[in-house]
Design goal:
Blueprint lengths: L2 H12 L2 E7 L5 E3 L4 H4 L10 H6 L2 E5 L4 E6 L7 H8 L4 E4 L4 E6 L6 E6 L2 E8 L6 E3 L3 E2 L2 E2 L1 E2 L13 H12 L2 E4 L25 H14 L3 H13 L11 H19 L3 H8 L12 H11 L10 H4 L3 H4 L10 H25 L2
Antiparallel strand pairs: 1-2, 1-3, 3-9, 4-6, 4-8, 5-6, 5-12, 7-8, 7-13, 10-11
Length: 356
């Protein structure tokens, strides 16, 4: 099995970035390259180092352009074999351990989508705006080998309009396709349909931290409000109150702060200035703030989906401190706050902070 040769075929035929991977003892995917070598590139990248591919046990791909992939995990009463076979009439199908993936091309970049059957989750996936990696043949994992149905080698991808592809799937599976990454959220994080707050770029890092404190206070997000108070008042944050351990807590906190700054219209340089002033009980982190900046400002994908807290449907900063639950990812909560009643109030606060 020459994984390097397979990687070239995926790169040339599918116009994707092939990633050399291994699986650890917990069956988690581990890339043998730095994610930054792949994720910040607009065009497909081919890692062609023979020594890297010799260490790999499998291949994952990162879609680019108009590639779409969907992971079907159908309800127990539906035959995965039957529907996988039906899908081969239209798409490239990969057999997985629990179901199957389909791959195809469309006429436009696609974000995240969800498949629902009788209001039950039956699959999810998306296109290049989704920024998700997919395991592909001939990868071996836990004794199972990913393989194509009806193909012995990497095939060419069929091409449809997005509406045609959706119709095929919905008719054949009697399902509903929900596009959870709307058109106003596609592309760069700085193009979310939210106008920048006037004057926010002129604020200093300390003034922006005060602004963040006032935002979370007005949103009644008490967990984040308390953390911002500590940062403003004491110059550092006590993450150990969460009980997560500093690294995990710091990760979610800084990603949330970077996301809110992006929605305010702060440039990456200004957000960097704020995040580089972060300290906690372990001192100044070496990498967490750069990870947050990379995620929000460089990945060019809907920043809401980048945060783990979205799927929980709650604010862990409040729930872990025993406050009444916000019931919302704080970034999404801020987005709607800003769209409704918050813009005028924020503009007034920024004006007052500038005069201080």
């Amino acid at each position: 099995m020459d994984l390097r040769s397979y990687a070239k075929k995926y790169y040339e035929k599918w116009r994707v970035s092939p990633i050399p991977i291994v699986y650890d003892s917990n069956d988690n995917m581990v890339p043998l390259i730095k994610w930054g070598d792949i994720f910040d590139k607009e065009s497909p990248v081919l890692i062609d180092k023979e020594e890297v591919w010799r260490k790999a046990s499998g291949i994952a791909i990162l879609p680019h352009g108009n590639h779409v992939a969907i992971d079907f995990d159908l309800p127990s009463y539906m035959s995965k074999d039957k529907y996988a076979e039906i899908m081969t009439d239209y798409f490239v199908v990969v057999r997985t351990r629990r179901g199957f993936h389909v791959h195809f091309e469309v006429d436009q970049p696609v974000g995240r989508i969800e498949i629902r059957i009788y209001d039950e989750h039956a699959g999810e996936g998306g296109g290049s705006l989704f920024k998700h990696v997919w395991t592909v043949p001939p990868t071996m994992r836990s004794g199972f080998q990913y393989r194509f149905l009806k193909h012995d080698d990497v095939p060419e991808l069929p091409r449809y309009s997005w509406e045609e592809a959706k119709t095929i799937i919905e008719v054949e599976l009697l399902c509903e396709i929900i596009e959870t990454l709307g058109s106003h959220l596609k592309g760069s994080n700085m193009q979310l349909g939210v106008e920048s707050i006037a004057g926010v770029e002129a604020l200093t890092a300390d003034q922006l931290k005060i602004l963040l404190f006032l935002i979370f206070h007005d949103m009644k997000c008490k967990g984040l409000r308390d953390l911002m108070y500590e940062w403003v008042k004491l110059g550092r944050v006590n993450m150990k109150k969460f009980g997560w351990g500093n690294r995990t807590s710091r990760f979610y906190f800084l990603h949330t702060i970077a996301s809110v700054l992006a929605l305010l219209g702060c440039s990456e340089a200004k957000a960097t200035e704020v995040l580089e002033s972060y300290w906690d009980l372990d001192g100044k982190p070496s990498d967490s703030h750069s990870s947050a900046l990379w995620t929000v400002y460089r990945w060019r994908v809907d920043l809401f989906r980048r945060l783990y807290v979205l799927r929980r449907g709650e604010c862990p900063f409040c729930s872990l401190r025993g406050y009444s639950n916000c019931q919302k990812n704080p970034v999404m909560r801020f987005y709607y706050y800003q769209q409704s009643r918050g813009r005028e109030k924020l503009a007034e606060i920024v004006k007052k902070l500038k005069s201080m």
